[in-house]
Amino acid sequence: MAEFEFDLFVIGGGSGGVRASRVAASLGARVACAEERYFGGTCVNAGCVPKKLFSYAAHFHDDFQDSRGFGWATPEIAFDWPILKKNKDIEISRLEGIYKSILENNKVTVFKQRATIAGPHEVQIGNRQISARHILVAVGGWPWVPAIEGGELAITSNEIFQLESLPECMLIIGGGYIAAEFASIFSRLGCHVTLVYRGEALLNGFDSEVRQFLSAEMGRHMELHLQADPVKIERNNRGLLTTLDNGLKLESSVVLAATGRRPMTANLGLENVAVKLRDNGAILVDRHFRTDEPSIYAVGDVIHRVALTPVALAEAQLVARALFADDVREMDYQNIPSAVFSLPNVATVGLTEQEALGKGLAVDIYSARVKQLKHTLSGREERSLLKLVVSATDDRVLGVHMVGPDAGELVQGFAVALNCGATKADFDRTIGIHPTLAEEFVTMRTRSKSHP
361: which strand partners? Predict the structure, then answer.
């Protein structure tokens, strides 16, 4: 009789949990996975995928306007929110089914209910206690609403996808990527958007020049209140009234708190084991994703690393292969590309100018602010920013940053170049594709600034 019922018990059926389950099962392990909410996790159900579908919808607003400069006589255009929501729901339901099928097709035992940790090798599901040689925590994060008077009147990114009608006006609290994306989306879908953020520019943590540029571009399409904080939300005759710390009062139909996410470690039973947490609830793990409890591992948004779906997938695969294929490797967190699907898009890989200086590196900066050829006829007053951070010591390109259309699609390729150690000379001798926006990355010859 086996000492444990399962070799691996995964708590959480999101991207990381499903990947770990599938890989471990393919390596011959007896695997179980418990998910209390929806398979595919935040990304599939209330994050990356539905948000990108909404972003596509928002793009049509600009496309219809721009087409007129190219000779298209477009009739009166009307947007139908219920159609978008219905089609989005159908696609998300399809994807969730695929994630569940991945587990079932790989002979993973699936529990569609909440699981908690009862001990180093024990998982509690309802009245049943299940033993496992290893436990992997992959429960992800959950939207966090700051302590504002009346904060319970705000919705989060979870509820935004389920709105039955398009709000006439929306106030968004926050300045990170979630706030920037939803502000861009709803402003293009026909909603009057007011964005309130306590910082001096959007996207804290991104390159400073990128932050300032995006804030200016987004400010063309919405009411932007920077260096301001909401202190109170209350109902009034016309919806909601939000009071800012500067005394300004703003009315809206909906208030969206897009103020970040926190790991979902509360009431998970971690007090029963030697797992340590950060102040924000994130699980502390070593370089192999093992907690202080040797039999328990954690990956994805629930740990203190990089909260991106592809990162969770990579971390989960490393854990599964280390446990069941004796293939022990470490995660490389350098040069992880990321994108913000705001309008305009933002994408980045490598070091920001500020990070490079913080490391004491001598760097040369190349940047260009250009008007895309398309807008010479569309008439749109939109510019794009392209930026390179280059080592002044060995000419290696340390960072690539872009604000502009399809930035994520373009920067993905440059992430490969950075991982291969590309230099500015490599960029310079690369022939550009003309006329494209991307060619600007290989035609920038004049330094905009230097930091010796």
Answer: none
